[in-house]
Amino acid sequence: MRIFKPLALTLAIFIWPINAAMANQYGVAASVYDLSNIDEVTGETVKTKVVVKGAKASHPYRVRLLPIQKQTIGSILKSGGSAFLKRSPYWIAAMIAMNYILDDDGNVYQPDPSGSAPDMDKSRSTVYLMNSGGSTNVTRDSVSINTALNIWNTQFGSALNNVKIVGAWSCSSSDCRANATWKSFGSSYSGYIKIPTDELLPPADIPIADEDFLDSVMPYIAANPTKEALRNPDAPNDWSHLIPTDDFTYLPDAVTQQDEDYINYMLDGIAQSTDPNAPGYIDPADYDRIADMASDIQGLDTPEGQADALNSEADAPLTAASMAEILEAERVAAAEAAATLAAEQAAADESAISAAEADANDPSNRQDDEDLDDEDLMDLINQSLDLPDLFDLPTISAASCQSMTLDFIGTSLSFPGAAGCQKIDQGKEVIGYMLWFLAMWHLFSIATRELN
Q: Smallest Cα–Cα separation from 51: which of 263, 280, 274, 240?
């Protein structure tokens, strides 16, 4: 069925509000065979170019745009116990660059940015309040730093209060220190708080929420847009994880992505060639060609169109890729048939061997050597070797040849002459030996067959 172009443009004005977000029904379900490259990365989407193909042998390979959402990227990276993050060289380098660490369960953490600074609430150690001269003012054992500060500020009255840490922590191999001030009986003092290093708890890693992790991942992919970012480390040539569902379709007749977009505008009823800034715009130079392609595709939706498509497909020459698929299928089928035949032959051989062994072990088929005496045994051997008597070589006499004399018009002719008779007798002797040899060979063949 043919679309009239003015009619298509008119329908677009009315249908656009309804169909703008709807996919047409003419696409063919496709699988991803390869990832060409990462085209663009935004905050929410990784736009890739992939090689796709439909299920039929006649469906061609095409390059299509495949946008992958940020949440799908997260699912891919965390699938299989975070296999991508653990085993992909790309993501091992990425985790180091982003200052992330991964536990055995695939959870992402960031090292404590405070480094070896003590945790004010969790550390349990001896806390020293030191004078500026280095003498000990007061200590508390096996408490957190905040607990020690609270005790000093509440339990000593005017003798010790208003204790504050006023500087950053500095740690060495022996202790961690931070400057501090306090008051005693109304006077202000300064010094530092000290904690032995060997009593500190190790710094705690900070768990990273999935959304925060993905917010870091997307900029990294944008800065390093290679196909290795999405290659499965456990199946390097399998790209099926890029389409977690079966809802990706393509138009096999459209060679390029742009042609497919244009055809979809036609099929969705929004095609126009007048306003480049409006939805459904098609370059006027391509409009007629795209309209014809869309019309042909729509024709496939009728019973007549489907029949024509099947006939065309039956007459279409095979592509190299299609031929390769067919040959591979035939090779697999032949291998399976050969394996089945080998298994059947092995079973038959085993059955024959078992039957022979059963016959050999059957007492009724066994003849005891003890039942035969020497004379009977020799008779049996002689019978098996008994051959017919052979006759002697024939004796051929050279004198058997005789000449005939013919008289013809007064002339006598003898045939054969003496020399001729001699040659004939010699030939007869050779022929006789040959006949004897052939007879003996025939008798020998008969005797051999009888023995076997």
A: 240
Q: What is the pLDDT of residue 19?
A: 30
Which residue, 149, 125, 148, is CA-closest to 202?
125
Structural domain including 443 reads: 398-404+412-451
Query: Pseudo-torsion of CA 426, 428, 434, 438, nearest 10°?
Result: -170
Tracing tokens 């002719």 back to the chain, one arrives at 413
Together in a domain, 70 and 5: no
Cα separation of 191 and 168, whole Å?
Answer: 13
In single-letter form, the type of residue at position 380 comes to L
Q: Which of 199, 218, 234 is the last residue of a domain?
A: 199
| Residue pLDDT, tens place only, 422-437 | 777 777 777 777 887 8
Beta bridge partners of 92: none
Max CA separation in the chain (angstroms) = 185
111-121: pLDDT as tens digits: 766 555 777 87
Mean pLDDT on 301-319: 51
Residues 188, 40, single domain; the answer is no
Report residue 12's pLDDT band, with 50, 70 and 90 as the boundaries: very low
* 3-state class (DSSP) for residue 159: helix
Query: Helix 303-315 vs helix 284-299: angle between axes, to the nearest 10 degrees?
Result: 100
Angle at 159 between CA 155 and CA 162, to 5 degrees: 70
**Quick check: 193 and 145 in contact, CB under 8 A?**
yes
Nearest in space to 50 (alpha carbons), one of 189, 198, 239, 214: 239
Write the CA distances from 84 to 42, 79, 209, 291, integer angstroms: 21, 8, 18, 44
For 329-382, what is each residue's pLDDT tens digit? Answer: 666 766 776 777 777 777 777 777 777 667 666 666 555 545 555 666 566 556
